[in-house]
Write a structure and sequence with these properties.
Chain A is mainly alpha-helical. Chain A has 10 helices and no strands. Chains A and B meet through α7, α8, α9 and α10 of A and α7, α8, α9 and α10 of B. Chain A binds a DNA duplex (30 and 30 nucleotides) through α3.
DNA sequence: TTGCATACATACTGGTTGGTATGTTAATGC
DNA sequence: GCATTAACATACCAACCAGTATGTATGCAA
């Protein structure tokens, strides 16, 4: 009847949703427990503090999300520009409504917590670095096989691409308008196109 | 000895800094009052609720900031691409350290509050719209005098430019690294350059 | 079957929150 | 100079917060 791993996951998922909605600082442990039907005993058995719970959400939930959505799909990819365009389209479709209403969890937490807690800042920075490296590596491979212009600074381009993605998601979140996300994404696609090697 | 307007401004400025640091939800009225040396009597004499104080910060402080830094300088500007490049450089230099540590107040609030409070969302959205329109108008004037390519969708380009600016500031805030801001800005400059009409 | 640690639930605490009710003082109009 | 109101200060409140102390039931090992 008892399954502590599952209980932990329930708490983690509920915390993820709560944080996604209200941010970490305004996230209420009482609300998380009310949503799960569990009690403080369970929560503090699995997580020593609220901060530890937040860290776990970053390390286990958000980290995995970015890996699955962005890093892994880029590892085997011949034309990184095309791949990024497809991933953008897919991301916009898959998580469309949720992200348009509540934004990208990674960006939300990074904006809220980077100037408040050093642990959050570093953990989130680590995820951003992984994401950027995945893009930079893909661009470099694209250069090797002639799909990407040789004069592109892959690292700097990766930084700008991630920033633009988060920027567009942020605009769409405030506007609550998925069309604005597409309009903004079109600008990014236009930029990506300039990275393509032209015959 | 008494100057209510000045008192109000002191409260407003302190609230702006507190919100800039901790966000609106985690902003503490007690901390604001401690920083000003004033008391609750003064605060609640000038502002009926915490929400009203937050709204005032948006309407009076942040609104003015965007107007002065972005909208106004673009009104009389022959080559909008060059102007934007200069404004980016200037913004990075002027507010450099503060923004690198605590981010753009407009973006911070928009990300935090858009999914929490409809009033904040609309007020901040209004500021974003003004900002975008200023850029779009400048681009359109650039098209009229041949500085900007005629096939550019000025509205969509303005959306992307604002998104990219906020995205770059967000990346730099998390990294706490002004060099990353410049690297990211270089990507934006590269995009802006593609808008230029080529001879 | 007994012993014992894990996995929770319940009840409570000190501190902080936004907000209010009541004083007190300074400026202003007459 | 006197009354009135604006401009604050002080004291207080219920609600909520993260966190803790204690109690209880489950499952497993011996």
């Amino acid at each position: 009847m008892r399954s502590p791993d599952q209980t932990r996951k329930i708490l983690l998922d509920a915390a993820y949703e709560e944080i996604h909605h209200y941010g970490f600082q305004a996230a209420s442990l009482s609300r998380i427990l009310a949503n799960t039907g569990l009690t403080k005993g369970a929560l503090y058995h699995h997580f020593p503090t609220k901060l530890a719970l937040g860290y776990a959400v970053v390390d286990e939930v958000i980290h995995e999300e970015i890996l699955n959505c962005w890093a892994t799909p880029l590892t085997d990819c011949q034309d990184p520009v095309d791949c990024l365009m497809n991933l953008l389209q897919k991301a916009a479709e898959d998580t469309g409504d949720e992200f348009v209403e509540m934004g990208c969890p990674l960006n939300n937490l990074a904006q809220e917590m980077s100037s408040v807690d050093e642990g959050f800042r570093q953990k989130l920075g680590h995820i951003y670095t992984l994401w950027r490296q995945a893009i930079a590596n893909a661009l470099a491979r694209g250069q090797a096989n002639g799909k990407v212009r040789a004069d592109v600074d892959t690292g700097a381009a990766a930084i700008f691409i991630v920033a633009a993605i988060e920027g567009c998601l942020g605009m769409a979140k405030n506007a609550r308008d998925i069309n604005l996300l597409f309009e903004c994404g079109a600008g990014l696609l236009h930029y990506l196109d300039t990275l393509h090697a032209k015959p």
